[in-house]
Amino acid sequence: MNLLAIIGEALRALRLNRLRTGLTMLGMIIGVAAVVLMLSIGQGAQTTVNQAIASMGSNLFIVLPGATSSGAMRQSSGSAQTLTLGDAQAVTNLPSIKAVAPIITGTAQLNYGANNWSTVVTGVTPDYFKVRNWSTEDGEVFSDTDFRSAARVVVLGQVTAKNLFGDEDPTGKTIRIKKSPFLVTGVLAAKGQSLDGRDQDDSVFIPLTTGQRQIFGSQFPGTIRFMMVQGKSVEVMDEAESEINQLLRQRHRLAEGTDSDFTVRNMAALAAVATGAAKVMSLMLGAIASVSLLVGGIGIMNIMLVSVTERTREIGIRMAIGANRRAILTQFLLEALVICILGGLVGVALGIGGAWAVSRAADMAVVITLGMVGLAFLFASAVGIFFGFYPARKAAALRPVEALRYE
Amino acid sequence: MASVQPDSSAESLIRVENLCKTYSLDNGINGTVNSQVLYDVSLNINRGEFVAIMGHSGSGKSTLMNLLGCLDTPTSGHYWLAGRDVAALPENELARVRNHTIGFVFQGFNLLKRMTALDNVATPLLYAGVGRAESRRRALELLRQTGLGNFAAYQPNQLSGGQQQRVAISRALVNNPQLILADEPTGNLDTQTSGEIMAVFERLNREQGITIVLVTHENDIAAYAHRLVRLKDGRVVHDGGVTA
């Protein structure tokens, strides 16, 4: 008995029952397509999250002021104004710290010519752009000199630049922030969404000193809203955290046992949570899709069982003219496998097509990897062998005499 | 037609001794019921013989045929086919014996549906491991010999009963068997076609020396054979001339 000939017999049997074969295959096609589609959406979500994390900058802490309390009424974290520029500069000198970016923020009206746009104005030091790993697309960010002299200079995010200038080149032009003129030194590269879904490109940056003295004067008398602190490496993050805590408690003269008036948040932990959530979603989508593949497999088993019963006499004839049990088993197993493999191929194609359509229609990131396609395909074949085996064994176990007598 | 006694020096092809077959049926009411169908059947058939097995329905002739064809195994007793003890062979070995040594012709033709005559005839060679081209060549040759050379591409339902039985005979012959087992081969055919089919068997026996064992309940069909074995209630009651 040669395998090639038996494959031929299996294909012939499948061709004889085109509609049934097609419908059984459809179960497989839908299952495989669903797996590919869901995996690609899950993978896309993971990639989006990873990009957002990478755009945040690496090895970051965010140090927020603590909660204020007036009487028994405690307010939200960050509402106190306990962090100062001095704190930030002190943190810079800690051994495990690479850079510190103190930040103040507020909203302001911007004007350029007849255009106006309201957005978040962020006061930062030039180090901010290093910590965030954010470069300019055009022009440059402002310098240390601008920072020290509280110069009226501004760096624009992409979205803001577009809203104020349209197609015009903003670098070297002057815009007005709260009616004061600011020189645009550059436009930042696109950064996309942050983890919390804010559009990071809709923003402008001015020197922190300028902001404190001229724009948000009364709001930040020497204090800052929060600071971003970058550790030297992943390994020293725990060390850096305790150094920051120690230093700030000392500077704020907090007695042993009292609550801190600030909070240090490790962004890596936040990133881990976000990554974990994306992974769980990815797994869940895959699991749901697998159910449809399983249902497809049961469909195959069902049809193969019917087919074995229907073809009992054929099996008897084949046995009488010399087919042994293995030849019968192989033929029926191959029939199931062919359905799965063909269904798998079409399903993969459909899944990729579906992923493309989703990415176009819903503007979602989808990622298709070869491994993913291979996995879906392998899974489909496994389903075929698993669900095809029982009917095939049933066929092979028939006794020739009884099979021949079957009407 | 005169009975031909087998030459005592001739080589034995089929030898069965004390063959018994009991079917166990679970009728669902009073548990397992045993019903014995064959009692101590002993028989010797030499190479080149043409034997008819007769008996009423329920006489056990079909059971004997299935045992001789290695489609079933006896409850007790011995069966030597071409010198080999096949009574206790495992199913895979039996499949090999059926493929290489025996050719079957059935009452209902038992051709594979929606498959051409040529493919039907070539199928045993598929299981014998013969290549496709060689299989088709041999199958076509046999179809020509049985006068169906022009019907190779026809499917069974496009052929008459007589033609279908010729296809079945070609299939039985394709792997050069030593034994042809024919179970009521003319049961579904009219008298004239029956005669033609029997003539084919007779020619195969005479010209090629193929041993033929035929089950029938018609005397005029049995008359083509050279020896008659009559079964009654699972026992051999006559073994000898066809005129008995």
Structural overview:
The complex is a heterodimer of chains A (407) and B (244). Chain A is α+β, with helices and mostly antiparallel strands. Chain A has 2 domains: 3-52 and 273-405, no CATH class; 81-260, no CATH class. Helix content of chain A is 55%, strand content 18%. Chain A has 13 helices and 12 strands. Chain A has helices at residues 3-16, 18-56, 85-92, 127-131, 144-148, 158-165, 208-215, 237-251, 267-310, 312-320, 325-361, 370-396, 400-405, and strands at residues 60-65, 69-70, 73-74, 97-112, 115-124, 136-139, 153-156, 174-177, 180-188, 203-207, 226-231, 262-266. In chain A, α1 packs across α11 and α9 (267-310) packs parallel to α12 (370-396). The longest helix of chain A has 44 residues, at 267-310. Chain A is elongated, with a radius of gyration of 33 Å. Chain B is α/β, with parallel strands linked by helices. Chain B has one domain (48-77, 84-240): Rossmann fold, CATH 3.40.50. Chain B is 32% helix and 28% strand. Chain B has 7 helices and 10 strands. Chain B has helices at residues 61-68, 91-100, 117-128, 132-145, 161-173, 191-208, 219-222; strands spanning 12-26, 32-46, 50-54, 76-81, 84-85, 102-105, 179-183, 211-215, 227-232, 235-240. In chain B, the strands form 2 sheets. Chain B has a 6-stranded mixed β-sheet, with helices on both faces. In chain B, α3 (117-128) packs across α4 (132-145). The longest helix of chain B is centred in the C-terminal third of the chain and has 18 residues, at 191-208. Mean pLDDT of chain B is 90; it is low at 1-9. The A-B interface holds A 1-2, 5-6, 9, 12, 16, 313-314, 316-327, 399-401, 404 and B 66, 69, 71-72, 91-92, 95-96, 98-100, 104, 106, 110-115, 123-124, 126-129, 131-132, 171, 175.
